[in-house]
Design a protein that fits this description.
Length: 234
């Protein structure tokens, strides 16, 4: 199965807006966004309890955010290969130089998005080669590929028209999970497991301040939690 959808609005000199949906096996445990990395108190993100990494992290002080999505070309990593969950943390630490700090051989395929005040960059790894693209100003949707690419035709216009991150959050409300890869929130059941939307978050970010709202059931209005984080004193 593929994982996650990201919508990002990036313009130089303005706060970053970002919506991220995590689709995963429902039995895989994870923690809600917080400062889970003691040596980096300004890094806020959800934490995967299995591999220890994250799918989305933000550096409050720098106003940067990084996210990883699965891609279909190599869905399973080779034994001993690095987890994709390390990539957002590496991108925050090293910026565009992150590829020099991880051994990609054997890793499962991925897309990695890094948003900084100066640039919006997307890397895509197909299991063999890594490509890099600078994205222009505007509102963009990135999915995990395949049937999920149909989400842009259904939902991107609504995000583009949104005038606040509250408008973005409202786009999730009432969208009950569907067994459809192009749905905004999904639920697929097999005889062995359930794969579904388990988390969504919407935030605005600028250097020094992160305004975040999130939910494990984003189609239900009363389940969203809001928090504001400011940079730690130096």
């Amino acid at each position: 199965m593929r994982v996650c959808t990201v919508v990002v609005r990036w313009e130089p000199g303005r706060p970053l807006w970002l919506a991220a949906v995590r689709d995963e096996r429902t039995a895989r445990p994870f923690d809600d966004p917080d400062a889970w990395w003691p040596d980096r108190p300004d890094v806020i993100g959800g934490r995967d309890r299995v591999a220890g990494g994250s799918w989305c992290v933000s550096d409050v002080s720098a106003g940067t955010s990084a996210l990883v999505l699965n891609r279909p070309q190599r869905p399973v990593a080779e034994p001993g290969a690095a987890s994709r969950g390390v990539l957002p943390l590496l991108a925050l630490e090293h910026g565009a130089r992150w590829p020099a700090h991880v051994e990609r051989a054997g890793m499962a395929s991925f897309a990695l998005l890094l948003a900084t005040p100066a640039a919006l960059t997307l890397w895509t790894y197909d299991g063999t080669s890594l490509s890099e693209d600078e994205l222009p100003s505007g509102t963009h949707m990135v999915t995990s590929g395949g049937g999920e690419d149909g989400k842009a035709a259904r939902y991107l216009a609504g995000f583009t028209a949104g005038r606040s991150t509250d408008d973005w959050r409202a786009l999730f409300l009432g969208h009950r999970p569907q067994d459809d890869p192009a749905a905004l929130v999904v639920r697929h059941e097999t005889s062995e497991w359930v794969y579904a939307t388990v988390f969504a978050q919407v935030f605005s970010s600028a250097p020094g301040t992160l305004r975040l709202t999130y939910s494990r059931t984003p189609w239900l209005d009363g389940t969203w939690t809001s928090t504001t984080r400011t940079a730690s004193p130096r």
